[in-house]
Amino acid sequence: MTSTTQSLSERITAPAEVRFPQPLAGVTWRPMTVEDVKPVFELRRLVGRVDHPSYSLSLEEIEHEITADELDRAHDTVIGIDADGRAVAYGIVVLQPSQATLVRSAFEGHVHPDHRGEGLDEVLLDWLEDRGLQQLASSDKTLPGWFVTAVPRQAEEMLELLRGRGFDFRRNWFELVRDVTEPIPDIPFPAGARVETYGPQWAEQTRIARNDAFRDHFASQPLTSEEWLSHDSLPIARADLSYVVLMPDETGEEQVVAFAMTDINEHDWDQLGFRFGYIPYVGVRRDWRGMKLAPAVLSHLLNAYRDAGLVKAVLDVDADSPTGAVELYERIGFEKTSRSVSVLKEY
Fold it and tell me: Are residues 307 and 244 both part of a single domain?
C-alpha cells in the first residue's frame, strides 16, 4: 500500500465538477431517486444472469444501497434511461465511512446486456472514476486511497475494460459451495464453550468479534454499530440460522468469541434451482484461534441448514486468506465453483 505523509487531498488532482455523461445511443443520464429502486433491481437481475448467475441482490438490498445515509444520490449515483423510459445502465460510487487503515471509494457500474458495445460502459466508467477521485481528494487523511470494485471473473467485457484503463487486479476470491445433504462431520466445541442462536442481545459483541477477527484480512475495515444493525434489519438476514460461540474471559464473564452468520435471498433459489443459505461471515477472535472453533460452529450451522430444509451452503473467501480459510472450508466439504477479483487504483 501507498505510504506517505501527504494527505489524499494533496496527492490527488480531482476534477472540480463532474458532469453527467452526454446522451449516447439514445440513452440520457441523471441522478437516481428513490423511485428508481424497482427498475434498478430489475436491471441488476438481468445483468446478474450474464455476469454472476450464482448471486443476486434482493429488492430490499437495492433499496438499502440507494437510500444509505453515506450516499449523496445527487452526486454519487447515475442512471441511464433509454428512449422508452427503461433503465439500461447505472452506477454508484460511495466513500466508505470506515477508514481505519484505508480510504475507499467503492464503485459499481452495470449496463444492460442488450446495450453493451454501444459505448455506455466507457462513459459510465469515466463518470464513476471522476466522482471517485473527487471523493478520495476530499479526505485529509494520509492513508492509502483506493478506487475499488469487485468483478466476477465471468464478466469478461468489464474486466477487459478495467484492464485497459490501468486498474490493478489485486486479489482473487473463491465462491465455495457445500451440499448439506451429504454427511456433515461432527466437530465438538472445546470445553467451556457453548453455542447460542444469534439475536439482538449478541449484536454488539458479535460486531466487535467480527472486527477483531477480520483485522488481518485483505482491505477489511471495522464496521460501525450502525452498519452492523443496518444489515441485521434487512429481510435477508436470518438470525434464526446464525450462531455465536460464547466462552468465559479471564473474569469469568461470557463473551462472543466466534460466529457464523446467515443471509437468505429466496429470489436466488429459483435462479439457481436449489434452496441455499449464504454465509457472509465466519470468524474467530484472534485470542481464541487454534481451538477449532471455526470448524465447530460451521458444522453446527450446516446441520441447522439441513434441518431447515436447505440443500446447500454458499460463501465467498479470500483466495489468499492469512488464516488458511480456503483449506479449512475444503476440509469440511466445501468446493470451489466460481471466482471474482478485487480491482482497484491506488493513490
Answer: yes
Q: What is the pLDDT of residue 65?
A: 95
How far is 91 from 80, CA to CA, in rounded Å?
9
What sign results for the dihedral spanned by CA atoms 265, 284, 189, 319?
A: positive
- Is 93 found in the same domain as 194? no
Q: 122 and 55 in one domain?
A: yes
Q: State how beta strands 312-318 and 276-278 pair.
A: parallel
- In single-letter form, the type of residue at position 218 comes to F
Distance CA 203, CA 270 (A): 31
Look at the alpha carbons of 131, 137, 140, 143 in this order and tell me if their dihedral is positive or negative: positive
What is the CATH classification number for the domain harbouring 327? 3.40.630.30
Report the pLDDT value the prediction gives residue 225, as an integer from 0 to 100. 96
Measured CA angle at 102 (ends 98, 108), to 5 deg:
75
Overall residue count recorded for the chain in this entry: 347
In whole angstroms, give the CA distance from residue 94 to residue 53.
25
**Rounded to two decimals, what is the model's pTM?**
0.93
Query: Around Cβ 156, how many Cβ atoms within 10 Å?
Result: 11
Cα gap 174→326, rounded to integer Å: 8
Which residue do the cell numbers 454501444 mark?
A: 118
In DSSP terms, 103 is beta-bridged to: 145
**Pairing between strand 77-81 and 87-95?**
antiparallel
Residues 194 and 81 placed together within one structural domain of the fold: no
Q: Is the pLDDT of residue 1 over 60?
A: no
Please report, in angstroms and rounded to a whole number, the separation of the first and last CA atoms in the chain.
9
Span 321-332, average pLDDT: 92
Q: Classify residue 3: in a domain, yes or no.
A: no
Per the prediction, the chain carries an average pLDDT of 96
